[in-house]
Design goal:
By secondary structure, this protein is an alpha/beta fold. The chain has ten helices and eleven strands. Strands 3, 4, 5, 6, 9, 10 and 11 form a seven-stranded mixed β-sheet that branches. A two-stranded antiparallel sheet has the order 1-2. Strands 7-8 form a two-stranded parallel ribbon.
Amino acid sequence: MTLEQLRIFAEVAARQHITQAAHHLNMTQSAVSAAITALETRHRVTLFDRVGRSIVLNQTGRLFLQQAQAVLASARVAEAALMDLSGLLHGELSIMASQTVAAYWLAPRLADYRKRYPGIALAVRIGNTEEVSEAIFTGKAEIGLIEWPAEQRGVTARMVASDEMIVVVAPGHPWADGRGRSAKDFAQTPWILREIGSGTRRAFESMLAAGGLTTDALDIPMSLPGNETIIGVVEAGLGATLMSRSIVAPLLARGTLVEANIAPLPRPFFLLRHAERYRSKAADAFDAMISADGEQP
């Protein structure tokens, strides 16, 4: 058994699709299939059930995946320790960010980091708040960036920036009239919201809770996993949504969206790190850069 076989197995298990895994790994489909077959044959186990033309991780595969992920996480730590000996001349930094953070705030900071440390490759993934927190906990990413606090054992969170959440509607929506409204008025319109588990959804639920409401009291025809789709639906006049001001600022300027007269909700951004895992110099340098940026007036 090799680390490469474990890496291939973990990718196929995550996607449960040989072709998609091969594309992500930049390998041929036959090479990925051969690696999985070799792993199963050598150890006389079946890790995937072949159902028609699909593959599905079975119970044995699910149990093995936990061990494989732990080994891969340990290997990344060992590699980071070796790379540290190069003094930030070579190496890789794994970052995972929530959609809102990645959409506008993270990009210029990645560019700044790359200019300072051109030898460090940046592996960046995007997920919702829960997924980012889980990635830090399991060691799949060393730096996490989210827009809402998430409790996860062993994961530390530090505020590094702030934004605010605002309610936006299409120009023809009744709430585009500028009249003041609050959470008690939220039942008057349909809501197009982010999925459960996202920081944006948690922010919206906190606004409801402050007004003594829950989502059960509202008309929520759609919960979607991406900001862009939600914005498009709201621009079409199908309801209201809560969104980061930084994301919708260009749309407000163009007049395709209008900010409803509802008190904004402050929204901090947090940097996540694991409290006990090895901390590479590459991650420390990114952490220090973000911290210094947050201290600027």
